[in-house]
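Note to self: keep these together.
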Amino acid sequence: MNTIEFFLEPSKENYHTLRVKAEDGNFRYIHSKYHPTKESSYLQDIVNPEKYDACIILGIGLGYHLAHLATIIPFFKQIICIDINNYLTNANIPQDIQAIIHHPSVQLVFVNPDNFQQLRDTIQLQFSKGIQVIDHPASFHAFPHIFSSIKKIIQQIVDKSVSNHLTSSLFAYRYFKNALLNLNQLPECFAVAQCKGIHAHQPCIIVAPGPSLDETLYHLKKHHNCIIISVDSALKALYDHSIIPDYIVSIDPQPVVFAHLFPAQPTVPVITTLTAHPMIFSLPAIVSLNTHPVCQLLEELYPGIIGSVDSRTGTVLGDAVTFAIFAGCNPIAIAGADFSFPKYVTYARSTEYQYRYQLMHSRYTPLETKNMDYIIHASKRTGTTTFSRKNFIQYHDAVDAILPKDTSLFHINPVLPLAHAKSIAIKDFLSLPQVSPYTKKMTPRLLQPLSHSININEIYTILNNETMFNTIVNSSRVDHQTSIQRIHYFLHKE
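Structure:
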């Protein structure tokens, strides 16, 4: 671990100031050498509680620049202050700064400079209007590379949180409706908790629908003794090559999932969640809980019974990877995860998405033109030289962050490689000594449906409690009165 060398020094104000050994080896002051409290007005013209209700400040030091927060803390849902070292332990600082630092609404985060990724697990954002990120200049001047790396990760967390917030707001009613409809089928489903370690030390290939999948399927068809986990949108491409996966992962709340799953064998289990489209529950469903309030209610009632492989990435690929790790698969290869448009192609052939793009073809606007227009437009402002999309880059970083270091992970024919997985060709992966001699074993039967473990009437009784129902509705961000009435209807529907 990097050790930050620092000194608490007296100032002319009888309070400590802070001197640190910077990245370049020189010593720099984080606050004024003589009058550190003059920094108290720093945030006054910067922070904007009228526009934002969450604020992240990068650089704490001894906290003099945080003084303005005292008057505006009640206006924020969340204030997070981040630094790479806790300088405050023995510091003599004013009482008003002490009060801010110890205020229950202010979260102090001290991140290990050797492990910035811990921020992804530490920071959970809650907001409705927006998030403001503010730099402390002196901290950045002393540690420019470290704080720039932190800021990059914070930006990824913010982008992901904004995306999730918008998605949750847009689909709030649909999520809740799906959860209530799927509760009826829950007793006949299996718990993902029963899959813990079920494929220990067995090789696995996770299949996504990116264009590079076309080159992979030919080899996979000849040698598919690995455990195959398909995201729903790649399923048609597998079936087109007579490859039947061992598992399908599907979490989409919308009816488009029907188009993906239409060719599925009724014996192939689907890893899904309670908020997914009800059509998924017509297949053998293995249920995983996510963060939706109805799911959290189930976890409180039956702790550990159902289990979760929710990756928190908001992507079906992330959940597929989490399930493979949860099931004990090792090594794990990820195929068709391009996070870009290699060779100016959007999706693998035979996938539902590629079929839908083909429907746009006409004499006056050929598919190739539409395709290229889409790729060029989507690739703007991604910050990469590869044709991609901003949310693809976010998916890439989110998936990369959940990859463990104690599992052999491979990324097949990547265009934007995952940093925590080794790039490899499909032939080379299938030739690995852990993979080539492996003969797929019969998938162990899941022992019992959830009807043996849960009482569905107990769940409905709690949901029918007016106080509990209103709490869950509010937590689910369903605020339209007509939507609430419809949810009442689904809850009481026989």
